[in-house]
Structures are given as structure tokens and as C-alpha cells.
Design goal:
The protein has 152 residues and is mainly beta. Helix content is 3%, strand content 51%. The strands form 2 sheets. Strands 1-5-6-11-10 form a 5-stranded mixed β-barrel. Strands 2, 3, 4, 8 and 9 form a 5-stranded antiparallel β-sheet that branches.
């Protein structure tokens, strides 16, 4: 990514490929189940080490996700949304302090984290009681059959 300059959320072209640099908002924030860190989305796992005689084997005994796959973001020009469902994204792995025989890992989108998003953006449809003019300012980045949504 970043083969061309990023655009501001307020200047995105609807139904066109756009690249933006944004920051994750606190909207709908949850806590990482292991770390307690404020995040918008988190995948986590806990694994236990077993000796196999010739090496070791890590067996996951707990894993899951918390938070919403619809993440609220902003830049200096406005607000928008990134729909992670079906997006190509890799979250940084954070190994957390754990007993020697266990491995605790979280992969999170932390509140305040900077993201680069490349994909098709559409304007948010009006919610009940909201005029089209009120809704028009919030782009939603979501996967498209013709263009994948990439989040880094």
C-alpha cells in the first residue's frame, strides 16, 4: 500500500478505489480479554504446552473474538467506518505475559491506532429518522466482489 498518496475521508470518491490513513476511534470500544487494553476489535488465544517426548506441542484451549467488525475511524477531515468482515487484514500479534507452560496472544485494533485502508468506499445510507444529507458525510469501506478491502 501507499503506492499513491492517501486522501482525506471528506474527499473520498464513492464507488471508487480510495486509500486513506485513519485512526481507530473509541466508539464501541471493548477490552482485550487478556490484556485489558482498550480496543475496537480483538482476536485472542490461550495455548498450553505439552511435551511429546521428541519436542513440544502447543494446544489451544481458549480462543475467540471481542468487539465489532464494523470499526469507526476518523482523520482530520471527518469520520467513517471500516467493515472488517471479509477484509484482508493482519493484526499485529502481541504475546502477553503468561506462565512458562502457556502462551497468551492477542491480535488487536487498539483505540488510537493508525490504519491504512485501501478499497471501495460507499456513503453510509441514512438511518431511521436521519436525512440523506446528514448521512452523506460518512463513508463506509467494505469488501467488494471486484476489489478486495485491504487494512494494514
Amino acid at each position: 500500500m501507499r503506492a499513491h498518496p492517501t486522501v482525506r475521508l471528506a474527499a473520498i470518491l464513492s464507488h471508487a478505489v480510495n486509500e486513506v490513513e485513519v485512526e481507530v476511534e473509541e466508539h464501541g470500544a471493548v477490552r482485550g480479554p487478556i490484556s485489558g487494553a482498550a480496543c475496537a476489535y480483538c482476536e485472542y488465544s490461550r495455548a498450553r504446552r505439552h511435551d511429546t517426548g521428541g519436542g513440544e506441542l502447543w494446544e489451544t484451549y481458549e480462543s475467540g473474538t471481542v468487539g465489532s467488525r464494523m470499526v469507526r475511524v476518523h482523520d482530520a477531515s471527518g469520520h467513517g467506518w471500516v467493515d472488517l468482515e471479509g477484509a484482508e487484514f493482519v493484526l499485529p500479534e502481541r504475546r502477553l505475559r503468561s506462565p512458562r507452560t502457556e502462551r497468551w496472544i492477542e491480535r488487536r485494533l487498539d483505540v488510537g491506532e493508525r490504519l491504512y485502508v485501501l478499497g471501495i468506499a460507499r456513503r453510509k445510507p441514512p438511518a431511521d429518522g436521519e436525512s440523506a444529507r446528514e448521512a452523506a458525510g460518512e463513508p463506509v469501506f467494505a469488501p467488494d466482489p471486484a476489489v478486495p478491502l485491504v487494512v494494514r
